[in-house]
Structures are given as C-alpha cells and as structure tokens.
Recover the amino acids of this structure.
C-alpha cells in the first residue's frame, strides 16, 4: 500500500505543483496589474503601430525558421538524413503545437513521432531527437541569459541580494566555465556521465552551428516582444537578459506556456518608466503573435489536409512532392486531439468574454425589458456554451462522433449568444469561423459513445481548475473598481455589467460543479464481457493467417474474449483477472483500425471500473500506446531468427552442427505432420505432454501460451521428433503472413530425452522453413530478459532483474535466454503498456495469475 501511495503521489505531485505555481503566478500578476485600468490595456493594444506588429510577425517567422534547425541538427546528431520538406514540416508543426498547448496527445514529441516515423525513423530515434532539442534549448537559453547578465547585470540586479559587480563577475565566470566545458567535451568527444546516463555532445562544427541557431532563436523571440513594448523600455541587449530569465523561469515552473509566470517576471524587471498597463498590452500581443499565429497557421495546414483527404483536392499538387506524401498522410492521426484542444480554447474564450463589460448598451432603451433580458440571457448562454465546449473537448480527444456534433452546436450557440450579448458581431464572426474550421475534420470522429464515457483523469481536472482560476482572476481584474454588494446579484439594467458577469460566472461554475459531482458519484457497473462463442473464435481465426505476428493464433486457445472493430477487420484478444482487462499482444488485422480498437478497449475497461493492460506488445505500433497516454515497461525479449541470413556453416555453430549430426546418426528424425491429426497421434502426444508436465513446477499454463487441447492442436501442423519410429518430442507450429512468419508454441518431450533434443528440433525446423522461403522463425519470448541493470532504472526494472536472476525455483529465466541465444537471434523487445497511475508490479501480478490459472498454480506441482 505504501508503494502504491508513493506512486500516486509521484504522479499527482507535479500536477499539484503546477497548479500551485500557476496560482502564485496569477496572484503576483494580479497585484502587479492592480493599478491598471483594463480599458487602458485595450486602448494600448488598438494603438499599437502597424509597423511594430509587422516587425513582431517578421521576428516570429525568423524565430520559427531557427527552431526548425534544432530538428535538423538533432537528425545530424543521430546520423540520419531526411528530406528538407519533412524536417520543415515536422519542426514547424512540433513547435507550433507544442509551444502553444503542450498537451501530450498533440505535443511536439508526438507530432514529430508521427511525421518522422512515416519516413523510416523509429520511436527511439525520435526520442533522441526530442531529447537533443530539449537539451539544446535549455542549455542555450541558460547560457545566453547568464551571459547577458555578465554584460548587463542591472537587468535583474534589483531582485538579487548582490551588488551589480558581484553579479557580473559570477555570471561571467559561469558563462566562461560553461563554454569551455562544452567546447572541450565537443572537441574531445568525451561523454559526461550523470547518474548512469551518458551525455555526448556533437562535434565542434555542428556545435558552432547549433550555437548560432540558438542565438538567432533567442534574439528573434526577444525582439518580437521588445518591439511591442512602449517607450521607456530598456535597450535591446539588456532586454535579452530579461527575456531569457523570464523564459527559463516559465519553463522550470512546468506551467503550460509559462502563462502568468513569464509575464510576472518580465513586468517586474522592466524599468519604472514603462507603464504597467502598456507592458501588459505588449505581453498580450506577444502571446497572440508568437504563439497563436503559428498555431493558427499549423491548424489551418492540418485542416486543409483534411479537405484534401475528403475531396481529393490538392492531391495532384502533392504528387509533385512525393517525399512529403507519407508525412501528410500522418497528419490525420492527431486531428482529434488537435480539435479537442481548439474546442477547449474556444470554451475558455467564451468564458472570458462573459467577464467583459458591455460597450453598446446604449442600443437598448432604458425601459426595454426585452432588450435587457436578451442581453442577460446572451451573457449566461455564452458562459454555458463555454463550459459545454470545455467538457465536450474530452469526448473529442476520444474521437466520439457525437462530441463533434455537440462542439459544432456549442460554437453556433455561442455565436448566437454573442449577438444577443451586446451585438458582438466580431465575436460571433470569430466563433462562426471556428465552425468552418472544424467542418473538414468530420471524418476524424468515427467512434460511437457517450460524451461522458471514459476516464476524466487528474490532468483534466487540473486543467479545468487552472481555467477557473484564470477566469476568476480576469473577472476581478476587469471589475475591480466595483465594490461588492449583495444587491449586485439582483440588479438588472442595461448598465449592470458586473452583476451580469457575476450571474454568468455563477451559471458556469454551477454547471462545472454539478458535472464534477456527476463524474465523481456516477455508478460504476462492473460488467464482465461475455465469453467468446465458437463463431467469434472462428471469426478471429480468419484474420490470424494474414497477421504479422504468429502470436495471433493464441486467440484460438479458448481462454480469451474478443473485441472486434466496427467493420470486423481487426480484433483484440484479452482476458479478465481481478480489476485488470489484459490484452495479449498487438491488435490483429487491418492496421488502419487499430487505433480506434485500442481506444474502444480502454473505454470499455474504464466503464467496467477496470484498468486496461496490454501485455507483450511489440515495438511495431508504439504510436498506439503513446496516443493512448500509456507508459511502457519492458517485460522481456522475443528471439527471432532471420532465416535468409541463417546458416550452420562457420565456426560459431560448429558445436551445434556436430550435435545435430550426432542425433541423426543415432536414429533421430524430425518430420512435419499436417493438420488435421489422427486421434491415435493425439493420444501419443498426450502421454508425452503428461510426462513433461510431471517434471515441471506448476501446472499447465494458459493465456500467453498454448495448452494441450485436441481441438486447439487440430488447427496446426505439428513437428515431431522420432527415434527408431517412436515419438519422443513434439511442438505445434504457428504460421502467419502466408507462411512467411513462423513460431513455435507448445513444446513437450519425454524427460529422459531432454539432453539436446529441443536444440535438434529447432535446428531442423529452421533449416526446413528456410528451404521453404520463410522470412522469420520465432523461438518465443524470454521473460524479463533485457531489463536495465542501472541503479537509476525504474523500480519495475530492478524488481524484474531480481526475479530474472534469482527466480530459478519457479522458472529458469536465465537458462531459457541462454538456450535461445545459441541460435544468434534478433532480440526484439516486448512491453507491458499501462495507464500512468497503475503499478507495473500489480499489473504483472494479475498477468502471472492469469497465466498460471491461480495462485496455487504458480508454485504447485
């Protein structure tokens, strides 16, 4: 229990810390803006020269071009080369989405993975690029900020308890030491070891190029803000230090976009000659220009891609750039998460505009009761529509079709409410544009389901709490000049701006409150799925022959349930143990239906108050588990022999070749018996199986391996080893992809024939299937193999290694891997994919009990 509590604390602590820091940032910002009149901020924004806006837009363009070069240098660092268009697309979309929303489902890393994996990079290579970018950005920003303090110590000197000369000397020393250390590590290619992790720097030429790009990036971003600041601002060189420090503090706060934190640092470090209201106007414009404009362009690019997919428009133009076609094909994948983020943003916007005072109330006559009621109703309707969009964004992220229709309706309702509320033509047009932008994404929402289905996790609640705090701070800022009185709640007139905003806020808060109560108290029906019928098992068998993984045939063991996609062209096999729904292996069938199938499985498990567990998934579809927000824990490695390259010739197989020849001289032969099988043969094999089980710890296993069952064995070819005409060993063969991928499942032999017999059978089968033109021969998975031995590894890795080394009383883990290593296979990782708040040891306990059948089955003979 203590371990589980610690894991829950480790998961929620960063979220709670982020909320606290966000609240502190809002509090500090509110006090800084206390003397500011909101009308003055709006007037300053309207008075911003067009030339300043154009300069800020130009600097933003330069900054984002520089950011793209981070990806280019990251690719060089890992030794990969991609088409320039691919790098530009992946870099721009990654920064445009990641900088603005930072949500995992459409963050920079997820965007890069989709685009770069489409042109050949694997998940680990994309992770290396993302890590390179994070280190380069963080290090560059820190060094530039410290170096700027060495030149202009007065930038933040008033906020440090040291004299400017001391700050200058210390900053110069840190800068020089950092540059010398980095330069030395780059020139010598020495690796820096930090808690077991090695950090290696690019060669000097690339490091110099990266430094140049970093300087351009920081210079452009800081200039975009500096040019928007009013008269009295510090000189540009000094402001770079302010910007670098504010950005770094915002990043360290873990608040998305550093909202509130960044603004507080900038305003507090500006000279007194800069009016706070004018600085606030410049910061707001900077957010719009540097974050929302690139985001809007990126969103428009994805929307146009959806139009292309739906109508075929633009396909001819894209055909002229064939290198970009795979990348554009991936953009559809993160459309649901992107639309969810946009709908959430529109919801926040509607909440905030209800806080603003009406400015055209003179259009309503003094005693026009209907006009007053329309204005009142429009304000409340705007707030309700905003809350509805925030709620429905969760369904959009899960691709629920009804959520899309509801979002369209809420946006239209918000537009109508804006017309009623002060004849807000501009806002109504803005919301109408949002409807038009969402229309191309209709086909991305193809899943049936209720809007409130699924799990609203801690992060969702934390985000909503953050929005609530921001809306409250905005309300108090806008209406701070109005003293509170109980009469405000009952005041209805054309000029009652604050009472109207109060009532709208109450409606929005009540809706969110009661929705939260509903989520927390709704009854959970723990409904177990029905057992698979013979027809269902037969349907699954029809998809197994063409599956990429022979493990798909384990669907026929009779101890699993099935979840099929809507078209029936893909399925998941799973079983239920305790509070876990445990799916075995990757989905089977049409890969285009895997994502919706996995989402559906997770949703159904959640509705049954269970946790989804994906056991022994491969590295083929890592994006599935990333999109689902699951964490991956390595549980072993599959030994796969590449048949075209395999040969017994040479010194490394000399001993095995001699042993095989000796077996043949001693009268052993390995032959293949085609299905179906004679009952007399099955009876002989049962005797061998019973004798084999009699010498093993535990009983017949299931779920992840086949079991001795005549109906199950009747589906497969069986390889038998005979000695002098007597069967002494057998194994059933799983084959898929028209026989190109082959695996051994059930392996049994007479105990007295154990020495070298399985080695002989494996070599015989490898030679036989190689002659038939098969591509791969799987020797099965070595459980707990390949887990990290480093002291900083996750607790699951350390625990798994302990079992691997000392669990011989229950299972010969090390011996199994050593035996398979004799065949020089490729070792391919297999993972356990879990929700972040689920302990892998708890999940593996359920898996172990499921395989063993019971706790007694783990240890009993």
């Amino acid at each position: 229990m203590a371990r589980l509590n610690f894991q829950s604390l480790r998961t929620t602590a960063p979220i709670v810390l982020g909320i606290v820091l966000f609240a502190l940032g809002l509090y500090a910002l509110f006090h800084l803006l206390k003397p500011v009149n909101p009308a003055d901020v709006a007037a300053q924004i309207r008075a911003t020269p067009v030339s300043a806006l154009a300069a800020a837009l130009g600097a933003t363009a330069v900054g984002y071009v520089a950011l793209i070069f981070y990806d280019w240098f990251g690719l060089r660092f890992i030794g990969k080369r991609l088409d320039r268009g691919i790098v530009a697309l992946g870099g721009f979309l990654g920064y445009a989405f990641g900088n603005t929303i930072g949500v995992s489902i459409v963050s920079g890393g997820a965007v890069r993975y989709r685009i770069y994996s489409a042109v050949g990079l694997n998940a680990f290579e994309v992770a290396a690029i993302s890590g390179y970018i994070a280190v380069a950005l963080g290090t560059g920003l820190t060094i530039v900020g410290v170096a700027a303090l060495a030149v202009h110590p007065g930038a933040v000197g008033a906020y440090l308890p040291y004299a400017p000369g001391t700050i200058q000397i210390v900053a110069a020393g840190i800068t020089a030491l950092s540059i010398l250390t980095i330069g030395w590590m780059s020139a010598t290619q020495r690796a820096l070891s930090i808690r077991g992790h090695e950090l290696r720097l690019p060669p000097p030429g690339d490091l110099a190029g990266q430094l140049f790009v970093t300087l351009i990036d920081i210079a452009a971003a800081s200039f975009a803000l500096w040019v928007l600041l009013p008269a009295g601002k510090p000189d540009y060189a000094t402001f770079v230090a302010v910007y670098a420090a504010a950005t770094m503090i915002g990043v360290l706060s873990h608040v998305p976009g550093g909202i509130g934190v960044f603004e507080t640092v900038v305003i507090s470090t500006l000279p007194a000659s800069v009016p706070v209201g004018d600085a606030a106007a410049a910061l707001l414009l900077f957010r719009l220009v540097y974050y929302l404009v690139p985001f809007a362009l990126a969103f428009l690019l994805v929307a146009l891609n959806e139009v292309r997919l739906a109508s075929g428009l633009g396909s001819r133009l894209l055909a002229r750039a064939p290198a970009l076609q795979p990348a554009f094909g991936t953009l559809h994948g993160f459309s649901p998460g992107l639309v969810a983020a946009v709908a959430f943003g529109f919801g926040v916007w509607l909440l905030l505009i209800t806080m603003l005072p009406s400015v055209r109330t003179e259009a309503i006559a003094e005693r026009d009761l209907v006009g007053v009621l329309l204005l009142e109703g429009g304000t409340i309707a705007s707030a309700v529509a905003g809350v509805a969009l925030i709620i429905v964004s969760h369904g959009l992220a899960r691709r629920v079709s009804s959520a899309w229709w509801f979002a369209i309706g809420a946006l239209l309702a918000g537009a109508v409410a804006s017309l009623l509320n002060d004849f807000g033509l501009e806002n109504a047009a803005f919301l109408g544009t949002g409807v038009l932008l969402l229309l191309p994404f209709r086909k991305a929402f193809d899943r049936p389901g209720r809007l409130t289905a699924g799990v609203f996790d801690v992060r969702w609640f934390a985000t909503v709490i953050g929005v609530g705090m921001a809306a409250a701070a905005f309300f108090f800022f806008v209406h701070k000049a109005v003293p509170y009185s109980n009469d405000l709640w009952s005041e209805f007139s054309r000029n009652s701006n604050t009472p109207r905003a109060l009532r709208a806020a109450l409606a929005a808060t009540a809706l969110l409150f009661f929705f939260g109560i509903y989520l927390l108290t709704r009854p959970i029906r723990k409904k177990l799925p029905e057992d698979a019928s013979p027809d269902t098992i037969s349907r699954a068998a029809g998809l197994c022959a063409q599956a990429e993984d022979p493990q798909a045939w384990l669907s026929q063991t009779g101890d699993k349930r099935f979840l099929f996609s809507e078209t029936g062209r893909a399925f998941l096999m799973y079983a239920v143990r305790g509070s876990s729904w445990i799916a075995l292996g990757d989905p089977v069938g049409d890969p285009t239906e895997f994502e919706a199938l996995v989402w559906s499985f997770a949703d159904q498990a959640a509705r049954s108050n269970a946790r989804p567990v994906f056991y022994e998934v491969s590295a083929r579809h890592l994006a599935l588990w990333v999109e689902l927000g699951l964490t991956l824990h390595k549980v072993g490695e599959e030994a796969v022999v590449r048949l075209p390259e395999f040969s017994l010739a040479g010194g490394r197989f000399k001993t095995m070749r001699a042993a095989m020849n000796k077996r043949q001289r001693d009268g052993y032969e390995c032959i293949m018996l085609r299905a179906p099988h004679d009952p007399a043969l099955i009876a002989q094999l049962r005797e061998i199986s019973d004798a084999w089980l009699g010498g093993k710890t535990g009983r017949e296993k299931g779920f992840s391996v086949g079991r001795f069952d005549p109906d199950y064995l009747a589906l497969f070819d069986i390889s038998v080893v005979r000695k002098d005409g007597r069967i002494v060993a057998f194994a059933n063969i799983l084959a898929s992809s028209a026989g190109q991928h082959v695996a051994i499942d059930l392996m049994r032999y007479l105990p007295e024939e154990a020495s070298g017999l399985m080695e002989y059978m494996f070599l015989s089968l490898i030679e036989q299937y190689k002659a038939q033109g098969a591509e791969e021969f799987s020797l099965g998975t070595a459980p707990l193999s390949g887990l990290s031995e480093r002291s900083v590894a996750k607790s699951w890795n350390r625990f798994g290694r302990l079992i691997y080394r000392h669990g011989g009383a229950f299972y010969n883990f090390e011996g199994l891997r050593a035996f398979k290593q004799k065949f020089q296979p490729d070792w391919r990782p297999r993972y356990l994919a879990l929700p972040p708040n689920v302990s892998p040891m708890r999940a593996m306990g359920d898996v172990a009990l499921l395989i063993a059948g019971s706790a007694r089955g783990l240890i009993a003979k």
Q: What stands out?
A: The radius of gyration is 32 Å. Residues 1-7, 359-367, 788-793, 795-812 have pLDDT under 50 and may be disordered. Residues 378 and 417 are 4 Å apart (CA to CA). The chain has 30 helices and 14 strands.
